[in-house]
Design goal:
Layout lengths: L16 E5 L4 H12 L3 E6 L2 H15 L4 E5 L5 H15 L4 E4 L14 H28 L5 E6 L3 H4 L5 H20 L5 E8 L5 H7 L4 H4 L14 H12 L10 E4 L3 H6 L10 H17 L1
Parallel strand pairs: 1-2, 1-4, 2-3, 4-5, 5-6, 6-7
The protein binds hexanoyl-coenzyme A and NADP nicotinamide-adenine-dinucleotide phosphate.
Length: about 300
């Protein structure tokens, strides 16, 4: 077994038509690749038409599945979203799965942000997810399409918060709240809502904005992960394919972390003791035991 091979059986997603926002690059593109390999029909959408066109051709060649289309839209714009989803329905007839993956982010001390800079991230991440989800949900309810699976891509700081990416943290927390809320409210219409919180998975989009220049060396993300490495795209894509599939039919309202233990390393009060050597532990054990004897 190779961990980057498709986890599900061939053609196990042949009854799924999946819309992936931001599917032309990075993790969204890797998810599209895995879903296509498993027989799904896939529509990718984002702002950059050239990028989408290139990704579509590349994915057809790589997977041998030509059931992939693209639609241009800025998820912040309700009307563009409605048009893009309309185009997708026209070509594929319908769709029954959605991955809200599009995002914007950059590091900055919060006091340096203009109001517009703060808004741009809230708008892409939270309002964009709302726009695509609301339009899709109304369509699925109206047309009685079921079962439906929605997967929202969040981050581990959606629940811890994080300095220097405050708009993103606030927006992802909102997306997580929306995921859990709709998981309950819209279950009656046959929709499941889950979230996935990835740790560090190298992509150009994220690395250029979150680890620019010498930060890449100074804050090597692999060193923050107990398993000692960053994620591989196919590992995340396999998890997504499971959540889209009917094998996960009873999973609803969950957030699944895939980060090699990264966020818990920061959370556990004594986890920094990873740095203590065996010899130091021998010494510390003696010190602790002798302190007890002296009582
Ligand atoms: C301060 C900044 C800034 C920066 C932009 N702005 N970059 N302020 N520091 N580094 C300000 C601008 O000055 C402007 O405010 C406002 O933000 C909008 O900028 P525009 O360039 O006009 O916006 P736009 O063209 O819409 O581009 C959106 C973007 C861009 C978010 C700024 O980076 C983008 O398109 N990103 C999409 C892809 C992306 O971000 N991928 C990474 C996802 S990674 P003023 O006031 O001057 O007009 C991710 C991972 C999380 O989410 C977890 C990792 C572990
Ligand atoms: P990425 O390659 O930059 O992907 C972001 C995608 O969103 C791009 O394809 C971009 O395409 C699209 N997008 C941005 N703004 C948009 C808008 N207004 N309308 C429509 N599409 C828009 O970054 P990534 O690393 O793959 O990130 C993918 C997801 O994973 C994001 O939700 C991110 O928060 C999450 N995540 C990533 C990591 C990581 O380590 N990489 C960790 C945790 C969470 P266009 O430019 O063509 O619009």
């Amino acid at each position: 077994m190779i961990r980057t091979d498709p986890m599900l059986r061939e053609n196990s997603l042949q009854d799924k038509t999946v819309v992936i926002t931001g599917g032309g690059s990075g993790l969204g593109k890797s998810m599209a690749e895995m879903l296509l390999r498993l027989g799904a029909r896939v529509a990718i959408c984002s702002r950059d038409e050239e990028k989408l066109k290139r990704a579509t051709e590349d994915l057809k060649t790589k997977t041998g599945n030509d059931q992939i289309i693209y639609a241009v839209c800025d998820v912040r714009d309700d009307e563009m979203v409605a048009n893009a989803l309309g185009q997708i329905r026209k070509t594929f007839g319908s769709y029954n799965a959605l991955i809200n993956n599009a995002a914007g982010n950059f590091i900055s001390p919060t006091e340096r942000l203009s109001s517009r800079a703060f808004d741009v991230i809230l708008d892409i991440v939270l309002k964009g997810t709302k726009n695509v989800t609301l339009a899709s949900g109304k369509y699925w309810i109206r047309e009685k399409i079921r079962p439906v699976s929605v997967v929202n891509i969040v981050t581990t700081y959606a629940w811890t918060g994080s300095g220097y990416v405050v708009p993103s943290a606030a927006a992802k927390a909102g997306v997580l709240a929306m995921t859990r809320s709709l998981a309950v409210e819209w279950a009656q219409y046959g929709m499941r809502f889950n979230a996935v919180a990835p740790g560090p998975f190298p992509t150009k989009g994220a690395w250029d904005r979150l680890l620019p220049g010498e930060l890449r060396e100074r804050f090597n993300p692999a060193q923050r992960v107990p398993l000692g490495r960053v994620g591989e795209h196919a590992e995340l894509a396999n998890l997504i394919s499971y959540l889209i599939s009917d094998y996960s039919s009873f999973i609803n309202g969950e957030v699944i972390t895939i980060d090699g233990g990264e966020w818990l390393l920061g959370a556990g009060e004594f986890n920094q003791l990873r740095a203590v050597s065996e010899a130091q532990w021998d010494m510390l054990e003696q010190m602790i035991k002798s302190a007890k004897k002296k009582k």
